[in-house]
Write a structure and sequence with these properties.
The complex is a heterotrimer of chains A (235), B (201) and C (222). Chain B has 201 residues and is of the alpha/beta class. Chain B has seven helices and nine strands; from the N terminus they run E-E-E-H-E-E-H-H-E-H-H-H-E-H-E-E. Classes of the chains: A mainly alpha (235), B alpha/beta (201), C mainly alpha (222). Chains in contact: A-C, B-C. At the A-C interface, helix 5 and helix 6 of A face helix 7 and helix 8 of C.
């Protein structure tokens, strides 16, 4: 075994990871606060008013980054699930379990803000738009994962069953996404879609990217705090 | 033949046994003893490959059973607590299916012989009594004599004296032919075990 | 290997035959659900004609899901599942055989009954073959994916409801393609694209689901 691989498995021990997680969580939490403030400032004060949608479009600075992160977190969750199944490390499973609530929350935020976006723009609180519908299904996938783990009493079976579900889910997510896209074009035709966002001024894109980064730092911080709780619970 | 190396088992947060090792050769009979809840069934399931041990490994002819999968399953018969018979099928159908799943073709005559030995009528299992159901499950043993390893969990449970004697004979015969048998039991049995593992210790 | 698969299919069919009423109840559910929609929405022929493919497909989904609970539960309860795990054939083959038997009992009858429901909804006759073909390609996928969920939720308290939460989101692509193909045909366009995609989903599910089902069974049986 090379020194490299020994080092990875050393961090895989919950005991050694616990303090490391604490340090990273603090730094990421700070970074998240700073980035969030910067992103919201750009979003609400610096970015220009949109010609078509007026001020209402500004919710995009929360909606789109939340949607991006919700999908990203699902992939990361499936990654840790796969590592957990392959190498039988408890910490990987804990990471996957810890990521799920944050992913679900961000999905919910994306849906909530998407609904707020739709209201002034279209007059309805909910539009069966391709992105919103995919996000809704993604929320069900997250909730299903959490429900399955909650329903199983035996820790080991709960972790492994959830892991398998996450992997099956991640394989299905692209399929679901593309079929919903197709479904949307079939049934909505030429109407303006929420996903066809106003043409991006550079500042708008910067604002969204900064918010995305802020959400990412937040997710890391919160997930690591949750992992620390799981480590303590399982001692 | 069968080797257990440093087995440990934890269920429901409790450690059932630790650092359990033994080696079993052909012609040996291993009895696992211990009170209820001491891990007898768990040990048997670990030996089958149904349960993963918390630590340690089980080896068959030197190779870990995890790697062997079906190759190992082909060599054994496992009869657990549950009768493992389908209520809606007859005893004969159940025995035939059990043999087919194990990869062995058996003729109707052989099945009938097995059922006769255990005094079972060819009725749907749901009409049989508890003891008869148990006998239907054990009827497989008569057709599994070529399989080297028998893992039996409480084989004498719910059996009357005659059936109990028949099972003892089968086990004795199998061991005499060079097979290995691991079984758990509460009851006193006349079968002399080559070795006893007491999980209470 | 094929021997064992054939043995399992025959066994499951035999058990289903001897418990005919259970099977019939699930099919009856399909018919009842499709009857509820006109009662809830109103019976205008144009409206019914346009919602027919969707309603039939959703009812098929729900009916399939109800019967999935039974797939492994009985085997788990009487101990035969353990024996399946210890059989001489690869567990993936056994899982595929069980899913196939489930489809024969719970999916194929839907394909045969659907034209009658389509009749009730006054679906134009040229659409019947498309509907039947879409169900023929889609219901096996439902059995295969649903079997993964059934294996994961084996013996759990939440039971059927938890299974639905896990499995319905995964059914969405099949639903969209299946109902979509009939909608395309109704609009006068060729449904080939959707039917081919359904076929592709079937092939992918048939190739990968058995191994996922086997892994799930091993996880649940520990």
């Amino acid at each position: 075994m090379t020194a490299q691989s020994v080092k990875w498995f050393w961090y895989a021990s919950p005991q050694t990871f616990y303090p490391v997680a604490g340090v990273i969580a603090r730094w990421c939490g700070a970074a998240a606060t700073v980035l969030c403030a910067a992103g919201l400032y750009i979003g609400f004060f610096v970015a220009p008013t949109d010609a078509q949608q007026g001020e209402a479009y500004r919710i995009i600075f929360i909606h789109v980054p939340a949607a991006w992160m919700s999908m990203f977190i699902y992939v990361v969750m499936a990654f840790w699930a796969a590592i957990g199944l392959a190498f039988n490390t408890r910490l990987s499973h804990m990471m996957a379990s810890a990521l799920a609530p944050t992913g679900a929350l961000l999905t919910f935020i994306a849906l909530w803000t998407g609904s707020f976006w739709g209201r002034p723009t279209w007059g309805t609180w909910w539009a069966w738009d391709a992105r919103l519908t995919s996000e809704l299904i993604l929320l069900f996938l997250y909730l299903g994962f959490m429900a399955l783990q909650a329903a199983i009493d035996d820790r080991r079976r709960a972790e492994r069953a959830g892991a398998l579900l996450a992997i099956v889910g991640v394989v299905n997510v692209p399929i679901i996404y593309y079929s919903v896209q197709w479904w949307n074009t079939l049934h909505q035709g030429a109407s303006v879609s929420l996903t066809r966002a106003p043409s991006m001024a550079a500042t708008m894109l910067t604002g969204m990217l900064i918010m995305a980064l802020a959400f990412w730092m937040y997710s890391i911080a919160v997930t690591l705090v949750r992992v620390r709780c799981l480590i303590l619970e399982n001692q | 033949m069968l080797e257990a190396v440093d087995l440990a088992c934890e269920r429901g947060g409790r450690s059932l046994f630790r650092r359990l090792s033994f080696a079993l050769r052909g012609g040996e009979l291993l009895r696992v003893a211990g009170p209820n809840g001491s891990g007898k069934t768990s040990l048997l399931r670990i030996l089958c490959g149904l349960l993963s041990p918390t630590a340690g490994a089980v080896r068959w002819e030197g190779t870990e059973i995890r790697r062997l999968r079906e190759e190992y399953s082909k060599q054994l018969v496992y009869i657990g607590h549950a009768a493992a018979v389908k209520d809606d099928l007859t005893a004969a159908e159940n025995v035939r299916i059990a043999c087919m799943l194990a990869g062995r073709r058996v003729s109707p005559r052989q099945i009938q012989q097995a059922l006769d030995a255990f005094e079972l009528a060819d009725l749907p299992v749901k009409r049989l009594s508890q003891g008869q159901r148990r006998r239907a499950a054990l009827a497989r043993l008569l057709l599994s004599q070529s399989l080297p390893l028998w893992l039996l969990d409480e084989p004498y449970a719910a059996l009357d004296a005659a059936a109990g004697r028949l099972v003892e004979e089968l086990i004795d015969g199998h061991v005499a032919r060079g097979g290995a048998v691991v079984f758990t039991t509460h009851q006193d049995t006349r079968v002399r075990a080559s070795r006893v593992i007491d999980l209470d210790a | 290997m094929l021997e064992a698969a054939r043995c399992i299919v025959v066994r499951d069919l035999l058990v289903a035959w001897r418990r005919r009423s259970d099977v019939a109840t699930a099919l009856l559910f399909f018919v009842i659900v499709t009857s509820l929609f006109p009662l809830g929405i109103g019976a205008e022929p144009d409206l019914l004609r346009s919602i027919a493919p969707g309603v039939i497909w959703v009812a098929a989904l729900l009916s399939c899901m109800l019967s999935l609970g039974r797939l492994f539960a009985a085997d788990h309860a009487d101990g035969t599942l353990e024996q399946l795990l210890l059989s001489a054939a690869p567990l993936g083959v056994i899982a595929a055989a069980k899913a196939f038997a489930h489809w024969l009992v719970a999916g194929l009858p839907l394909v045969l009954i659907a034209p009658l429901i389509a009749l009730q909804y006054d679906l134009p006759a040229p659409l019947y073959p498309v509907l039947a073909l879409s169900l023929l390609l889609g219901t096996p996928v439902l059995s295969l994916i649903g079997a993964i969920g059934a294996a994961l939720t084996l013996g759990l308290r939440g039971g059927g409801v938890l299974l639905s939460l896990l499995v319905l989101p995964l059914f969405v692509p099949v639903l969209i393609m299946g109902a979509g193909s009939v909608d395309m045909a109704a609009a006068g366009l060729a449904p080939d694209g959707q039917l081919l995609l359904l076929g592709a989903l079937l092939i992918v599910a048939a190739a990968f689901a058995p191994w996922a089902i086997a892994a799930a069974l091993r996880i649940s049986a520990e």
